[in-house]
Amino acid sequence: xxxxxxxxxxxxxxxxxxxxxxxxxxxxxxxxxxxxxxxxxxxxxxxxxxxxxxxxxxxxxxxxxxxxxxxxxxxxxxxxxxxxxxxxxxxxxxxxxxxxxxxxxxxxxxxxxxxxxxxxxxxxxxxxxxxxxxxxxxxxxxxxxxxxxxxxxxxxxxxxxxxxxxxxxxxxxxxxxxxxxxxxxxxxxxxxxxxxxxxxxxxxxxxxxxxxxxxxxxxxxxxxxxxxxxxxxxxxxxxxxxxxxxxxxxxxxxxxxxxxxxxxxxxxxxxxxxxxxxxxxxxxxxxxxxxxxxxxxxxxxxxxxxxxxxxxxxxxxxxxxxxxxxxxxxxxxxxxxxxxxxxxxxxxxxxxxxxxxxxxxxxxxxxxxxxxxxxxxxxxxxxxxxxxxxxxxxxxxxxxxxxxxxx
Amino acid sequence: xxxxxxxxxxxxxxxxxxxxxxxxxxxxxxxxxxxxxxxxxxxxxxxxxxxxxxxxxxxxxxxxxxxxxxxxxxxxxxxxxxxxxxxxxxxxxxxxxxxxxxxxxxxxxxxxxxxxxxxxxxxxxxxxxxxxxxxxxxxxxxxxxxxxxxxxxxxxxxxxxxxxxxxxxxxxxxxxxxxxxxxxxxxxxxxxxxxxxxxxxxxxxxxxxxxxxxxxxxxxxxxxxxxxxxxxxxxxxxxxxxxxxxxxxxxxxxxxxxxxxxxxxxxxxxxxxxxxxxxxxxxxxxxxxxxxxxxxxxxxxxxxxxxxxxxxxxxxxxxxxxxxxxxxxxxxxxxxxxxxxxxxxxxxxxxxxxxxxxxxxxxxxxxxxxxxxxxxxxxxxxxxxxxxxxxxxxxxxxxxxxxxxxx
DNA sequence: CGAGATTTGTATTGTGGATGAACTTATCGC
DNA sequence: GCGATAAGTTCATCCACAATACAAATCTCG
Lengths: 407, 407
Fold this sequence. Notes:
2 copies of one chain form a homodimer.
Chain A: H1 20-37, H2 44-51, H3 55-67, E1 71-73, E2 89-91, E3 96-103, E4 107-114, E5 119-126, H4 134-154, E6 158-166, E7 169-171, E8 176-180, E9 185-189, H5 199-202, E10 205-208, H6 209-220, E11 228-233, E12 237-243, E13 246-248, H7 279-282, H8 284-290, H9 299-308, H10 311-335, E14 339-344, H11 346-364, E15 374-377, H12 384-399
Parallel strand pairs in A: 3-6, 6-10, 11-14, 14-15
Antiparallel strand pairs in A: 1-2, 3-4, 4-5, 7-8, 8-9, 11-12, 12-13
Helix pairs in contact in A: 1-3, 2-3, 6-12, 8-10, 9-10, 10-11
The first copy, chain A, binds a DNA duplex through helix 1 and helix 3.
């Protein structure tokens, strides 16, 4: 999880001493998790059966969660069966919200999501941030975030945290953005941002855009897909592996540079200085240029050309799809992931890429003859990373609801 | 961890209800972990300071662990400082042992290791298991394991479990070996093996050889390297990523087929049916044949030729090292791992491969200009997977020492 | 329509494990 | 030998969950 950071320890026996209060924390999180994951409202009795706790214990925990506005009680409904009707419990609406922020090449924005999944605020500001000044852009973003937080709090919503998505390599330990090629940013110190309102109150975590988009995808699939690879196609190509409902964040906290998987060692020169990287075949710039279009033009131009049967466009997509398939096949052999979600520009392009990707996967994945490998376009919607950031904040809350309990 | 298997759940709130006994389990494991990780014997007071538990609680926990022969108390030593001398606590020697088993192409064996790291029994039987009959080989292995377990128990050693390493894709959910190309095994049902002595008593987990070798490497480095990539070079090439002291086991429990990373999409045909896989450049067979040697010959032949300056041998190693570097660069870009350990045949070959690997990493790894990336030969010793299997059994014990408490 | 059955949720008492303070044990320094 | 110091133990207390009993709300059936 991008949010959790433990101090480094020498051995495998991580963690800290467990005391009585730890039981509370664990069981609060357990109960809350069951309510959040459920498709329909559940009762205290349901929770007791599902968790193995007694009804008395569940009641005590639920009362705490209701009091702290995390859960809401509905009106009892007659189900037609014998017995006292159950009180339905649901995630509270409009009480607590996570803030998801994003700076990307062509927009910035702020989105607030509550525990029920409702979007309480949504600000998306188009703009060209190519070669922009980080200080200016981030100050603009902070001001808009402060406005949103202020409005929400006036409406009685507690904002519990904020998460910023950036299209680049983030180093959480050094608290800086290492490099975001498409913004033209490098070595941006992020610690100063945490001193600025509203982040001085809310806190702020900064994460790679693909990782947070993957969280949004996970939620969009109703938390039902435990493991998948999210591929974020933009100018660069990011990947985020979700494994057992957790984003695998790379060894040092940043990762997923799928775009710099080598496809052909002596292939075209990539912006990174190496030859034959996936990005040089299947990044947005590479596709647009190969199709004879403006590098900065809208993606729909490429789709339109392809629909017309334009030969250069089709060739660009075939080559991009082929390269993507080669890179994904290696990735699948390494991780055995069985589900691949194509996001970013690959969402709309999926119909054009599909066959080319599938052919390489079929030829190169070891388990292809025996196992199903699903490749699908993303369901996470527009500005997925903004949604994912907000969801990630709420996931942090769900992992430790005791932090929100009234004193 | 290969040993732990939870039932699949829908959401992120994994785990089960925490009750009072959970505190004991957690804190027992915490205390034990500190003793196992320590470089020197520690006292109860040290443990209290390190864990945050009170001395009273630590004492109670340690007494349980001593009683169940997991920890041993030494004689108090005068340290020269004031105060009552501390009782040094160490992992018990010769009381509990894990059994590590392995079937590989040219040998099979059984190794027993205790909590102190001593090898209590070691049986390695050379033999050619190319195209062998799984039933015959596994029956042979079981008989030798039973002998070892019997001898140990006659010496008062409790054997707490067994772990089998196989050079292939293991599917723990279906309880079968899917395929082990170099043994010529495919779709071997492993559940029957669990009914045979001694595994009917000891239990048995089956894991990919590279994953267990990585565990051995982790221990050989004194548990001090939390994250690294272990590369197992044999006829095939496996990889195991250790992340925060845990083996990343792949999404479905098997993984790490580094050997089938595509190096050149139109490269030489690989045994898997695809073209240009790493294995076709840098697998043992590929190297030997390219050097003009017998595919099945000993590795020292290749080293000898290289030492003589034999041109085909040097060319084979250059090409293999180049391909390995290309594949590892993609892997590093995906995971940001900062430490690569070369095991199997790459241990002895490391001096010959080093420069070629490093050149490609330097050219292709995004963070190469800024970050140190260490590539080293393995320290885990011969038959690393056998050691790793035994260690893994003991790690399972350390994670839940309450299971060994006397009733 | 009323008595029993059934299920939900609450109140009460008991238990296990950690805490914290006081106590005992063993050594050092003077 | 005596105080200081540190390790380890004893014991009363607290806290969270378990178990049991009970109250509340609905259905079923005579």
